[in-house]
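Budget justification note: compute hours in this period were largely spent on complex prediction jobs such as the one shown. Inputs:
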Amino acid sequence: MNPSHRHQDEEIQRFTANELAQHWVLMITLTVLALTGLALFAHGTFVGRVLMAIEGGMEARGAIHRFFAVVLMLLTAWHFLYAVFTERGHRQLMEMLPRASDLAGFAGLLRYYLGRTPEPPAFGRFTPLQKLQYWGAGIGSLMMIGTGLILWFHTQAMAVLPKWLFDVTTIVHGYEGLILFILLFGWHLYIVHFSPGNFPLQRTFISGRISRQRLWREHRLEYRELFGDTPPAADPPRSNQEAP
Amino acid sequence: MKRLTLLATAALASGAAAQPGPAPTPAPPLAVEVRQCGICHGRPEFKQVDPDGTVRTLWVDEGQLATSVHAKWHCIDCHADVDRIPHPPRLALVNCQRCHFPGNPVGAPEEVNYEGYVKSVHGRLRQAGNAKAPACQDCHGGHGVRKPSDAASLVHPLHLPQTCGRCHVRVFAEYTTSAHGVSLLEKGNREAPSCSSCHGEHGILPPKENASAVSATHIPETCSNCHGMTEFNLRYGIPINPVRTFRHTFHGIANELGSVRVANCASCHTAHNILPATDPRSTVNPANIPATCGKVGCHPGANANYARGRFHIDPSSRDAGIIYWVALFFKILTVSTLAALGAHIVLDLVKKLRHRQGATVRD
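Corresponding output:
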């Protein structure tokens, strides 16, 4: 791409169709798993009763939960193969690995929030906060799959596992699910869609594209790699973001 | 013998007793005292041999009647179909509702739950023509009806198991050797449940019916009448609240939502043979747990490993050991996550809104 090109609403492709598809499947799967899980976790509360009624009662709820658990496991396999065996996927995984610079990035972000520095730190392709979301969701999902399988095949599991481990598994599955729910449906949604400048909908997860302005603002190191030190033109009026 | 005096009208006594029809209520003015029922029914040897060879005693124990709640009534007040002497060989079953109805003028207790009885499994079978199904007098006694609070009453809690056990023989055998039965019948502990404590009195329904107090979905509630109280449980050496801890398990949640497939109290502890886990006869004794959990339709293949470890765990109690600590860790983790992410959102929000405001002002 020509770095000197400064077309006003130019967007660049950030995610491939494969990556977007993975995100869509994950988004739908985790939403259904969270709602069917919460119906059980929040049993006895109003929310739990409403969810349980919507999901068709205990047995239907369980069937839906297990169906989407299988989808999540297939997606995990798909993602694993993608990240390990495709060149593009592997490069993304490498970019996603936590580094010491991420800690400095966190500290810098905190200083910026507290008004100690005028500018936020310059981040690369994935910001420390994005890495936290990715690894949080990833490790969380793996934990949910592992504990979930024990709960699914409880009759067999109880024949070999100590009872206390089975009880611990139940607790871990419940609370880990709750933490994932908070992480994705609270924090992730705020960062991506609800924060000022992104509200009400940031379209990257649909189009896979990001504006040069946003790339400059949020992933400056990546921007510099692509376009050099020349900042992009001012934000086009129709894009929903705050002043720099 | 006044009690046993049969009063009949002069018309009846003179032999013109051909008029049919039931005895009206209240009885018509009785003119002449013609016979005494006790002449026949007062003799212990008075009996009848039925065509099938069975011998039925027709003796009415005066003493029993004299100490019953109905001591002041005459024979025909209840046996209202006796309108001549000698009366027909088979009298109708006494209808207690002649007096025991709401607003009755004779002061008979009105709290009798007739409606409940009619809808009960006993009442329904009776109406369907099953003569073995109990009517009022089968449980309360015929001539010896006493108040349920009377220690000699057939439906007094201490006698009730025996009364029900006349028909429910196998259940009676199981109950009498259970923790409940031993406590009530052998130790005389009135806190221990008798039959009606769990099954109800007149409105007894089969456990398969959802409305029954001992149906799969109602049994935890019924057990919790006693075992839902911590101090009650402690008094009997039960260190945890079994109903509350059950409610938080998968079994308990599914049960609360109306699942009848999932285990309820009686699925593991049985209905009548309830014994402490330390008792080798108990279905929840470690030696018997594989068979109990491995029941058809539950967890086939349950082995000895199922019996290792504790059941009815309360994760919020330190007694739960590692389960308590893991639960505590995750509670703290959840709250910290919520706090950290919430703090970030607030910081980010404040910064971005200020930034925007500043930009607007600058513009």
